Amino acid sequence: MDDTRLGKLYQQMAETVIEMIPEEWEKVYLYGEVADGFSKSFFFYYPSERREPVYSLDIPELFHVSEEKFAELKHQLLDELEELWTEYQSQGHEPWTNLTFILDNSGKFKIDFDYTDLSGANPHQQQIIWEYQYLRLVPEDEDDRAFL
Question: What average pLDDT does this structure show over 40-50?
Answer without folding.
Answer: 96
